[in-house]
Amino acid sequence: MADLTSAPHIEIRPLATVEEVFAASEVLSVVWGGDRSGMPPNLLRALAHSGNYAVGLWADGRMVGASVAFFAQPSARSMHSHITGLLPEFRAHGFGRALKQHQREWAFARDVGHITWTFDPLVARNAHFNLRVLGTRVTEYLVDQYGPMDDGVNRGDESDRLMVSWALAAPPVPTPADAAVIDAVEIPADIEALRLESPADAAAWRHRVRDGFLRLLGDGLVVGGFDDARGYLFVRP
């Protein structure tokens, strides 16, 4: 376990060497339960060398996180953040926010106006970070977006995802007032633990949340925010 009793020195910089690319691929492999196919070194090297966003985060000289994004079509002035991960012992210390702010500044310098990414709607800490901390906007519910995934985090589950868009020049989207909330879709407090303890219950949550989203989106509502107790808050557009 890392000693984080004193604030470590953080450095975020591009992956400039083959050795750094391999180190970043290894960090992401650890984050995703030993899966080495999510961001193999050769693909990571190609993305970095062709001018895309590929950085590592070092804490006191040790690489503990990495993030990779690539450009969308030129007319969109957008890029898609494909993967961002921190070693488990370095989470909840502000490193994830530092990575996202670095990504934002890097994008601004290249005339990019939006960053999109996907995340599992069942993971409460990611929903809190993306919607409450960063203030992103949910644009799509994607059913089984990646098909079967054979990593330690997603194995045995369907890969439903939420697509979010981060408007870099706009203020964060605020959590809606209670009076504006029409309905909500609850999620479990810790789906990752539930998958280990009761896969059947975890699968039931997947379908319950999917059905709730599709029903409410079909009724013309949109996700207005996230509440840790109530889940996803739906409002009229």
Give a written overview of the molecule:
It is globular and about 50 Å long. 31% of the residues lie in helices and 27% in strands. Helix 5 crosses helix 6. The strands form two sheets. Strands 1-2-3-4-5-7-6 form a seven-stranded mixed beta sheet, sandwiched between helices. Strands 8-10-9 form a three-stranded antiparallel beta sheet. Strand 2 and strand 3 form a beta hairpin. It contains six helices and ten strands, in the order E-H-H-E-E-E-H-E-H-E-E-E-H-H-E-E. The chain is an alpha+beta fold.
Features:
10 strands; 237 residues; 3-stranded antiparallel sheet; 6 helices; 7-stranded mixed sheet; alpha+beta; globular
Mean pLDDT: 91
Pattern of helices and strands: EHHEEEHEHEEEHHEE
Q: Strand sequence of the main sheet, in spatial order?
A: 1-2-3-4-5-7-6
The number of helices is 6
The poorly predicted ranges are: none
Total beta strand runs: 10
Report the end-to-end length measured between terminal Cα atoms: 45 Å
Radius of gyration: 18 Å
Please outline the major beta sheet.
Answer: 7 strands, mixed
Helix content: 25-40%
Task: Please state the oligomeric state of the protein chains shown.
Answer: single chain
How would you describe the shape? globular
**Percent of sequence in beta strands:** 25-35%
